[in-house]
Predict the structure.
Amino acid sequence: MDVFGQLLGGIAGVLTPVNLLLLAAGVLMGMIVGVMPGLGPSAGLAILLPVTFGLDPAGAIVMLAAVYYGAMYGGTITSVLINTPGESATVATTFDGFPMAQQGRAGPALVLAAVASFVAGTVGAILISLTAPAVAAIASSFGPPELFLVVIAGLLTLVVIIGQNRLLGAVSALIGFGLATVGVDITTGNQRYTFGSPELIEGIDFIPVAIGLFGVGEILWSLYNRAHRQDLGYMAVSARARGFWPTRRDWAESRGSMGRGSLLGFFVGAIPGAGATVASLMSYSVEKAVARRPEKFGHGAVPGLVGPEAANNAASAGSMVPLLTLGVPGSGATAVLLGGFLIWGLTPGPLLMEQNPDVAWALIGSMYLGNVMLLVLNIFCVPAFASIARVPFRILGPIVVVLCVIGAYTVNGSLVEVGIMLVCGVLGFFMRRFGFSPAALVIALVLGPIAEESLRQTLLISGGSFGIFIQRGPSQALLAFVALLCVFAFVAPLVFGAVRRSVDRRTERRLAEAARRAGEGEESADDRPSDEQRQVDA
């Protein structure tokens, strides 16, 4: 069956009453999660994942994916109205979105952001439909050696791109790998690091870890930043108010930005580790570089709002490509999605579209329908969602913590996992405090068993020889990519540091030269006779 026929089959699978209800529920919950400052898609998925237990796999995956891109939409509302990003991907939206709201143009800003998100989401869904089968066909020839290298390459890309400190990112990933070794050795059957606890024989489930890191950890981080004492203010907006809709000039200024942001965001999002935050900031830089009046950026420029908003939503679609075709999540949110796949007995990767095409294409088809739902919600239900921002943190925080405890307990009915969740919440706070990466830890925890199993299979095939990695064509290409990442990780800081020092030296020389010339000018001015002296001499 061709791609178009498979896509129609996926959309038809979503158009059942049950799946439509699940899609609508996911979109709605994602919007609510996105509006709550500090949570974001990763925390929302981790908290809401237990809600999907007992559902049909296709419906559950559709609902979780709707929560994911719904949260990307929702974060825009607080970014525009109260200058508080719902999560890191909407930081760039505040640069020009909030100034527009301060100028009395909150309505046009929210409508333009909603349309940009719709266009980007639709473009992303189309590109997934076209690229995912091709990537899956290439990856279907991968064996255990290639799968192991894909996992390592994904983690290295994450460590190299995400965060300001690559060493701390690598340490975070190693902590995740260490947690993944708890349980039973898949080869010998011996227990590892269980400390005699029967609850740890099956290993540490990623769900309580993710809920703790992204849920409880974010609440503790908000308390540390005194969010409970801050009065964020609130800017009311109504769809019936005069000036709510954008002008013709607004639409004209935003067309090119929507297209550039959609394409840039999708391809950046498809890179494991880059994510929506990188895509939105890159889009903002591109729009400012191509603008005729870059001085307007930061003061309510429409392209500065539309470009990043399109990029971060297209990136959420692009991140599905490595997840569906390679089984490699590129962010904390897609790592939680990968865990959901594994819970329902599905293995994302090259064979997913062959063995479970109903689930894969239902997920892709739901993105078309979900974007339509989100467009309607964003435009006509903005006042209702914006009112959530007025909920005091002293009420919102305890509710989130209770939901985290309930979610962790319902996974296996284990109080030990509730304790693990709370410990990981404290760990997540300190990781945020000292610059570590919770996302890298969760991704490594999910990919750790896959990497270990594929490495053991590779060594069994080769009789314990690592030479198998240089005997196969795909392995050689992936190994070269891994080597380039390692070189980039070590060389790039040196090169960038040298360039920065050179620029600083040139700047210092220019400042010193300007100061010297200014001093000479003052001195020569002092040496010249005054008008009174000229009169006396005369």
Notes: Residues 3-471 form one domain. The mean pLDDT is 76. The chain has two domains: 3-471, 472-538.
